[in-house]
Structures
1.
Amino acid sequence: MSNAREIAQLGSVPSGRKNIIINGDMRISQRGTSFSVNNAGAYTLDRFNLTDGGAGSFTVEQSTDAPDNFQNSLKITVASADTSIGASDYAWLTYVVEGYDLAHLNLGQSSARTFTLSFWVKSSVTGTFSGGFENYDGGRGYAFTYTIDAANTWEYKTVTVAGDTGGGNWKTDILAGVFILWDLGTGTDRTVPTAGSWSSSRSVGTDGGTKLVSTNGATLYLTGVQLEVGSVATEFEHRSYGEELALCQRYYQKNISTSSETSMSFCRGQAFGASSAYVYFEHPVEMRTKPTMSNSIASIGNFGALSASGGGCSISGLTYVSAWSSKWTSTLSLTVAVGTFSAGQATEIDAGGNSNAFLAFDAEL
């Protein structure tokens, strides 16, 4: 049998990478392992954002409680309950798919393709939960439901969706292609009465879905999240740790010193005055867009810098220079509080003797 004929007979087998979701097994958590979310939106584990605009609050953790064949899960705990969810209240866990990764689904067109979402879930609360898919501007939405039958038990759920043929603003570039939302406690301003069809309404979930935030101390765990073309959920696609990390770093990169790396060097550059220098950070992968920068100066004190004589200086200020930065490299301007540079001589940013010193770059959707 020829190779071409073998390939033709294997037409139902996915080619390339089938899982559109990045970090669906919750192994990557560059920002930390525990988060508090109250009246704000915050990325937690990589690529997953918890948005809370109601009276309740949540904690999020990277947990080692997971079903067979997985190491980690995302754990949500209701830190304070909202027992009277108003129409405008909202709380949901979100994954945003970049438009480039969604283009082959042809959403909004007559040729839109069927796709399937699958995931493992465990909750202390039973009932019919809901979620939704929304496009870039919320002009098209689809609500889904799933049932948690037994408390504190891992269960596997699948949601198959006929692709939207109703037009709408579906991005196929670096912008948000689709929002996938798990409703944690959202009011009727953002939900719909019934699930299972595309509409021009925002669809975070259904009006009557079980609302986790209504129960103080309630927990919900999620892992094994997969989004793929077709009407059948297939086995979760496990990627190597290095590959998964690189995919996450397109959106967020955090470089941090440990207790054994307190003298690590982050990046290098050149002094242009007695107390100022430019340094240049090369990103390990191309980021989605030019990022913003955060650092640890305010939280743990100064970074270190290397003076012309080889001695240490304390960095008192660090600024992102957008005009000289890109998706591939970032330029930072630093000021030293103590010590003297010599213009034109090399310098660096280092951990300054600190553990948990960090530089972070954010290009999230």
Note: The longest strand covers residues 219-229.
2.
Amino acid sequence: MDPITILAAAKASYEALKAGIAVGKELQHMAQDLSSLFGSVAQITRIAAEPHRGSLLAGKSAEQMAMEAYAAKAEADQLMADLKNQFVGQFGLAAWDQVVAHVTQIKKQQRAEALEAAKAQEELMANVAGVGAVVLMFLVIAVVGMLLLIR
């Protein structure tokens, strides 16, 4: 996805959060919007930090793509700064720090679980391949044995 599209999603999440904070909405009711905004900003940051490896999108030059990524990142950073200021004003700095710490902790846990699941899948595939090889060996031995008995 291009940074402009991701930025549009970030802006929508930001506006929903801004409205929620303004009316004193409970934090848990804003979790989806907060997650969406954090995810969009992280995605824009990755795009801006890494050069595009695919083909040129819609005939855009490398300079255009780089400028779009930079502008989107700058705007996303400003959205996050504004959100932080509003959040801190409503709930306090400790609440913001707690939310950011929880987001970091949860993302680390999710990455660890994904790595563990991938490792388990890899081990399962290795075991299946091993069992398959043993079964194939027995089948070959059985066929050879039957051929020898028939003669």
Note: The two ends are 67 Å apart (CA to CA).
